[in-house]
Amino acid sequence: MAKVYYDHDADLGFLKDKTIGAIGYGNQGRAQALNLRDSGLQVIIGVHADETHQQATSDGFKVFSIPEASTQAQVLLLLIPDEVMPEAFENEVLPGLSQGDTLCFASGYNIAFNLIEPPNGIDVIMVAPRMIGAGVRQRYFERKGFPSFIGVHQDASGNALNTALAIAKGIGSTRSGVMLLSFAAEAELDLFTEQAFGPAFGQVLLSAIQTLIDAGYPVEAIMMELILSGEFAYSMQKIVEMGFFPQMELHSHTSQYGSMTRSARFMNPQVPQTMQEVLEEIRSGAFAKEWEAEQKAGLPVFNQIKEMRNQHPIAEWERATRQAFHMD
User: Fold this and answer.
1) Which of 25, 96, 142, 238 is positioned for an S-S bond with 71, CB 3.0–4.6 A?
2) Residues 162 and 192 in one domain
3) Which of the listed residues 181, 197, 219 is the one where a domain comes to its end?
4) 112: left (phi over 0), alpha (psi -120 to 50) or beta
């Protein structure tokens, strides 16, 4: 069984006399930096001269270039996008690292697929919140916490796990619980959610919408019934709170009977087969190589698919429904 740690397992003392450098000040960077500072820790920010620099300065942080912050801090939180991180690490972070420093990743991606190779003599850890940045900040104030995956890739000091736990406590995650996981497992689970579960769900939703449109129902009624009323989102939240099957008791007997008796019709053997294929592409590194090649080519496929997505009629259907129900 996986190991889970809580507040009483973590000690902020492992960060007490260290400067933490948050590299990046986007949604996660800002939330984590503010939480760590509110936990009594010394935090500086490393960013380029853009709007995030202005935001960090406005929030009262000492703000430096990424090379300067990498030199001054003993613990570096790498909170910039995965796709730009290898180049930034090589050119701006690596020159400032010293023996005994700690690199903390918020995703296992670049380590798992060998896109970044940290030098010896430093700790390499992971604290990966399972929560968007706004939630990381909000739940810190609410003292509810949020789950995270933590990991240790390189333990030069002998205290790498303690440092990871201290960071997790500083951002408020150990209030909920953090699970020890390898960098590879975190990256693979994250990519699988994005590439298998998410697309499968999306296709089911689009198929349901199209089926009802073809049957002649008003598009505004369809969008409200399936998405915009918030009923489905509420049910998903109740799954989080109660469990998948227990939340069914919140629905009518008619709903339960219909769901249970018709569910077998949607057990398509191609779905698990396709999911297995996607998982194998992730675990083998094939996707990481494909994505790296796409970036080097200037994102031609990425941009083409985005354009196709932006032209999908669902945007107009949503607009019409929001207008009809005065939701704008």
Assistant:
1) 96
2) no
3) 181
4) alpha
How far are the Cα atoms of 172, 206, 235 from residue 203, in angstroms, in the given order?
36, 5, 20
Average pLDDT score over residue span 82-89 = 94
pLDDT in tens, 5-22: 999 999 999 999 999 999
| Domain interval for residue 81 | 4-181
- Asked whether residue 200 falls in the same domain as residue 169, the answer is no
Residue 76: give its domain's CATH number.
3.40.50.720
pLDDT digits (tens, 9 = 90+) for 303-327: 999 999 888 898 888 888 998 888 8
Tell me how many domains the chain contains.
Answer: 2
Per the structure block, which two tokens stand in for 314? 């669902």
* Boundary (domain end) residue, out of 150, 181, 212: 181
pTM, whole model, 2 decimals? 0.90
Residue 118 scores a pLDDT above 90: yes
Based on the fold, state whether residues 162 and 191 are members of the same structural domain: no
d(CA 80, CA 28): 9
What is the rounded distance in angstroms from the CA atom of residue 33 to the CA atom of residue 31?
A: 6
What pLDDT, on a 0 to 100 scale, did the predictor assign at position 206?
93
Q: Tell me the C-alpha to C-alpha distance, in Å, between residue 90 and each of 85, 87, 159, 284.
A: 8, 5, 25, 24
232-261 pLDDT tens trace: 989 999 998 999 999 999 999 999 999 999
Residue 106 · residue 173 · CB < 8 Å: no
State phi, psi for 229 to the nearest 5 degrees.
-65, -25
Claim to verify: residue 174 and residue 213 sit in the same structural domain: no
CB 183 within 8 A of CB 160: no
